[in-house]
Specification:
alpha+beta; Methylamine Dehydrogenase, Chain H; Rossmann fold; eight-stranded mixed β-sheet; four-stranded antiparallel β-sheet; 30 strands; globular; disordered N terminus; disordered C terminus; protease; serine protease; Prolyl tripeptidyl peptidase; WD40; Peptidase_S9_cat
Length: 677
C-alpha cells in the first residue's frame, strides 16, 4: 500500500510539472529578435542532404540575417560559407550541379557588386552560384558587368534557368546614374518618373540572358546580353519550353506609375525571339495583362487581366488565354467578371499572380482565388469552358525531417481564439470579419475592443493569427478586423461599393460590426480603441473625426487629405479612380472625404506614426493632421521612423510601434464613460 501511494504521488508530481511546463506566455516583442527559421530548402542526394537559407537576427545589428546552410543525414546543420555572407533566393540548376542564389555581398576582390539603393526600398542583389558538391561561390559576372542591380520584387523580378540549363535569364537595371555630368558636379537632382514605392534608386528594369560556362571559373557567365529595348520596365520573364523565345509583361507607354500594391495601367504581354531579339506584342487590352505562364507545349499561355485602365489599385482579375500563332497571337477571356452575369460565377477570380507551376497539362490550369476570408485553389480546363473542375492536385512537397525546428528559442506562445463573424450593415449588406478574443486566462468578456481596419481599401483581412493581432489579443483586447465594402474577395460590386464614398458606407460597416460585438457580449461599449495602417490609417483618422466612442486611436502612415494624396503620392490613379476625377475637377468631393477636414472635431487622444520615406502616403499628411490636432488641444503625439517606406520593416521600429501603441491605449484606458458626443 505504501508502494502504491508512492507511485500515485510520483504520477501527481509529473502531472503538476507538466501543467507548469505548459503554462504559456503571450507573444513578446523580444520574439522579433529570436527569429530562426530554415527557408527555401533544396533537397539533394535523394533526401540525404538539404541546402537551405537560415534566417535569423544578427544581435549586433538587430536586423535579419540570411545565409547558406547545409544539413546531411546523421550530422548537425552547418554554415556552407565561412563568415555566413548574405544569401537568399535559392534555385537548383537543371543538371543538379549548382545552387544559384542572390546576395548583396561584394565581389571576391572586395569591389561592390552594384551601386547601393536606399535602405527603405527593395533590396538590390547580384547572382551567385555554388557547387552542390561543395566549394567556393562564384559570381555570375565580375566588375565591368553590363547590368547593374538584380531586382528582387514579385512583379518585375525573376531569375530562371533555361530548360536545357545552359543559359540564365534575369531582370536587372543597368545600374547607371541618370544624372548628367553637370547635374552630378553641381549635386542637383532632376525629378524623373520612376516606379515609386519600393523602387527608389533603380533604373528601368531590363531582361538579360547569360550564356553559362560549362565549367565556371572566376565567373559563371561567358556572355550576358540585354534582350529588351528602350527605357521601359520589363518583368516576370518566362522561357518557352524549347528556349527559343521568352514572354514578358511591360507598360511601354509614356504614362508610368507605381505597381507596388497597384496593377491598373496598360501592361501588355510581349514575345521576344532570342535569335534576333525581335519584340512582338501579344496582347492589346486597355488595362493590364500580366503574370504570363506558358503551356508545356509552348502553344499558348495564360495570364491575368482587367479591362479597366487606371481602375482600382487592386482589381477583380480575369483569366485570359493567349494562343500563340506564327504570325502573332489571339486572346480570349475565359470568364469576364466585369460583364453582367446571373448567379454564381463558374470559377473564382484569380488572386493577383499565377503560380509558376499553374499548368497541370496543356489544357488544365490551376490558380488560387480569393473567396471572402478564404483562399481557394481551383482548376479549369481551357478547352472545355470556364467552369471550375475537380482535379487531383500534385502533393505538396513535404518538409525534410533533416531541417532544424523553427524558432527554437521562442517555442509555444499563448494564443487568442479566432472566429469569423457576419452581420448586416446599415443598408442590409452582409459584412464579414474576423474577431480574435483573449485567452480565458487573460480576460473575461466583455473585452476591451481594438478595431483594426485593413489597408487598401481594396485589400482584405484574412486571418487573426498574425503577430500584431495575437500580441494585442493576449493582452486583453478583442481584435476586430472587418472586411468592409471595398474589400477584395467578395466580387466586383462589393469592390466598387465604396467608390466616391470613402468614410461613408465602409465606416458604417465597421460601426455596425462594433455594435454587433457589443450586443453579443464580446465587446465592452465603453472601452474601445482603433489602430490602422495606410487606408486603415485613413479610417482611423476618419473615425475620430466622426465619432467620439473610442478611448484612443493610433494612425500609422495614414491618408489624411485626398488632395495632398494625389499631389504627393506615387499613385495618382488611386485618388483619381476612387474619387472619379482630378483635384480640380472634384475639389469638394476630395475635401468632403478627407479626414483632415474634420480634424477640428477630434477629441479622441490620437497617436500618429509615420515613415519618413513613405512614397505611398507621404509624411506630409501625418504632419498636417498632427498640427491640426495640436492646435485644437487634442492629446496627440507624432513619431517618425527614419529610413522606412510604406511598410515599417526594421525590427527596432516594429518593436517601437507595438510597445508605443500598447502604451498609448493603456494610458488612456481609464475608468468611466467614454467621450460624449
Amino acid at each position: 500500500m505504501v508502494r502504491l501511494s508512492g507511485i500515485v504521488f510520483l504520477c501527481l508530481l509529473v502531472m503538476v510539472q507538466a501543467a507548469v511546463a505548459e503554462e504559456l506566455i503571450p507573444p513578446q516583442v523580444g520574439d522579433l529578435y529570436l527569429t530562426d527559421v530554415a527557408l527555401e530548402p533544396i533537397t539533394l542526394d535523394e533526401g540525404k542532404s538539404v541546402v537551405y537559407v537560415r534566417q535569423r537576427v544578427d544581435p549586433k545589428t538587430r536586423s535579419l540575417k540570411r545565409s547558406l546552410w547545409r544539413v546531411d543525414q546523421g550530422q548537425e546543420p552547418r554554415a556552407l560559407e565561412a563568415g555566413e555572407p548574405d544569401a537568399f533566393g535559392l534555385q537548383l540548376s537543371p543538371d543538379g550541379k549548382w545552387i544559384l542564389f542572390l546576395s548583396t555581398r561584394p565581389f571576391p576582390d572586395g569591389t561592390p557588386a552594384f551601386a547601393p539603393v536606399p535602405p527603405y526600398t527593395d533590396t538590390a542583389a547580384d547572382i551567385w552560384l555554388i557547387p552542390t558538391a561543395g566549394g567556393t561561390a562564384v559570381p555570375l559576372a565580375g566588375p565591368g558587368k553590363p547590368y547593374g542591380r538584380v531586382i528582387t520584387d514579385r512583379f518585375y523580378g525573376r531569375v530562371c534557368f533555361s530548360p536545357d540549363g545552359k543559359r540564365l535569364m534575369f531582370v536587372a537595371d543597368e545600374g547607371k546614374d541618370p544624372r548628367t555630368e553637370q547635374e552630378r558636379r553641381n549635386n542637383v537632382l532632376i525629378v524623373r518618373e520612376d516606379q515609386g514605392e519600393g523602387y527608389e534608386g533603380y533604373g528601368p528594369t531590363q531582361v538579360w540572358v547569360a550564356d553559362l560556362l560549362a565549367e565556371p571559373g572566376n565567373v559563371a557567365a561567358k556572355s550576358i546580353t540585354r534582350i529588351t529595348p528602350g527605357d521601359f520596365w520589363y518583368g516576370d520573364p518566362q522561357w518557352s519550353p524549347d528556349g527559343s523565345f521568352v514572354v514578358v509583361h511591360a507598360n511601354r507607354t509614356p504614362e508610368q506609375e507605381s505597381v507596388r500594391y497597384s496593377i491598373n495601367h496598360n501592361y501588355d504581354l510581349w514575345k521576344i525571339t532570342l535569335n534576333d531579339n525581335r519584340l512582338t506584342q501579344l496582347t492589346k487590352g486597355p488595362g493590364p495583362e500580366f503574370s504570363p505562364r506558358i503551356s508545356p507545349d509552348g502553344k499558348r499561355l495564360v495570364c491575368l487581366s482587367s479591362p479597366r485602365y487606371k481602375g482600382p489599385h487592386r482589381d477583380v482579375y480575369n483569366l485570359t488565354v493567349v494562343e500563340l500563332n506564327e504570325n502573332g497571337a489571339t486572346s480570349r477571356v475565359l470568364f469576364d467578371f466585369h460583364q453582367p452575369y446571373n448567379g454564381k460565377p463558374p470559377h473564382g477570380s484569380p488572386e493577383y499572380t499565377l503560380s509558376e507551376t499553374c499548368w497541370l497539362d496543356n489544357s488544365r490550369v490551376t490558380f488560387n482565388s480569393l473567396q471572402g476570408l478564404k483562399t481557394v485553389r481551383q482548376a479549369v480546363n481551357l478547352d472545355a469552358g470556364p467552369e471550375a473542375i475537380e482535379v487531383e492536385y500534385p502533393p505538396a512537397p513535404r518538409r525534410s525531417p533533416l531541417l532544424p525546428a523553427s524558432n527554437p528559442q521562442i517555442g509555444k506562445r499563448l494564443r487568442g481564439d479566432v472566429a469569423v463573424i457576419h452581420w448586416k450593415s446599415f443598408d442590409g449588406l452582409e459584412i464579414e470579419g474576423v474577431v480574435t478574443t483573449p485567452p480565458a486566462s487573460v480576460a473575461k468578456p466583455p473585452y476591451k475592443l481594438l478595431v483594426m481596419p485593413h489597408g487598401g481599401p481594396h485589400h482584405r483581412a484574412g486571418s487573426g493569427y498574425g503577430f500584431t493581432t495575437q500580441f494585442f489579443a493576449t493582452r486583453g483586447y478583442a481584435v476586430f478586423q472587418p472586411n468592409f465594402r471595398g474589400s477584395t474577395g467578395y466580387g466586383l460590386n462589393f469592390l466598387n461599393a465604396d467608390r466616391n464614398d470613402f468614410g461613408g458606407g465602409d465606416m458604417q460597416d465597421i460601426l455596425t460590426g462594433v455594435d454587433y460585438l457589443v450586443k453579443q457580449g464580446i465587446a465592452d461599449p465603453k472601452r474601445q480603441f482603433v489602430y490602422g495602417v495606410s487606408y486603415g490609417g485613413y479610417m482611423t483618422s476618419w473615425l475620430v473625426g466622426q465619432t467620439h466612442q473610442f478611448r484612443a486611436a493610433v494612425a500609422q502612415n495614414a491618408v489624411t487629405d485626398l488632395n495632398v494624396m494625389w499631389h504627393l503620392s506615387d499613385l495618382q490613379s488611386w485618388t483619381e479612380y476612387d474619387m472619379s476625377g482630378y483635384p480640380w475637377e472634384v475639389p469638394e468631393r476630395m475635401r468632403k472625404h478627407s479626414p483632415l477636414t474634420y480634424a477640428h472635431k477630434v477629441k479622441t487622444p490620437t497617436l500618429i506614426l509615420h515613415s519618413t520615406n513613405d512614397r505611398r502616403c507621404t509624411v506630409a499628411m501625418g504632419k498636417m493632421f498632427y498640427r491640426a490636432l495640436k492646435e485644437t488641444d487634442v492629446d496627440t503625439q507624432m513619431v517618425l521612423y527614419p529610413d522606412e517606406g510604406h511598410p515599417i520593416r526594421q525590427l527596432p521600429h516594429r518593436e517601437d510601434v507595438l510597445l508605443r501603441t500598447l502604451d498609448w491605449f493603456e494610458k488612456h484606458d481609464v475608468q468611466g464613460d467614454s467621450q460624449s458626443e
